[in-house]
Design a protein that fits this description.
Blueprint: H1 12-26, H2 37-54, E1 59-69, E2 89-96, E3 100-110
Antiparallel strand pairs: 1-3, 2-3
Helix pairs in contact: 1-2
Length: about 110
């Protein structure tokens, strides 16, 4: 691998781990509460972006989050990107507990 090239690699395993840790920390065993969603999502974004920036990669990150009550309803989600397939990438993390479904999408875009 060329010197410095490792800075441009989107590390799926590390990104997925960061997101799962943020979700476990904020949501853990909590029950779904509509009035807590704004606080939870702000905290998840704060933790996730802070830890993503600590990866010290030359990337910009976009984090998207869906929190939904687990009640038997269906959910369909999609995304589409026009980007550099070599330098940019994404990671989708699905998380759930007994009352909450959560889907987090992280897009890593090369900043240089």
């Amino acid at each position: 691998m060329e010197e410095g090239k490792e800075q441009h690699i989107f590390l799926h395993d590390e990104v997925s781990y960061i997101i799962k840790c943020a979700l476990d920390d904020v949501l853990g065993d909590k029950d779904y509460q509509q009035n807590k969603i704004n606080v939870w999502k702000s905290r998840i974004f704060e933790i996730s972006l802070h830890l993503l920036m600590k990866l010290n990669k030359s990337s910009k990150y976009l984090v998207s989050l869906i929190i939904m009550q687990k009640n038997g309803a269906g959910l369909h989600s999609a995304s589409s990107c026009y980007w550099n397939n070599i330098k940019d990438d994404k990671c989708i993390v699905k998380w759930e507990n007994k009352t909450i479904y959560c889907i987090v999408s992280v897009f890593g875009l090369l900043a240089i």
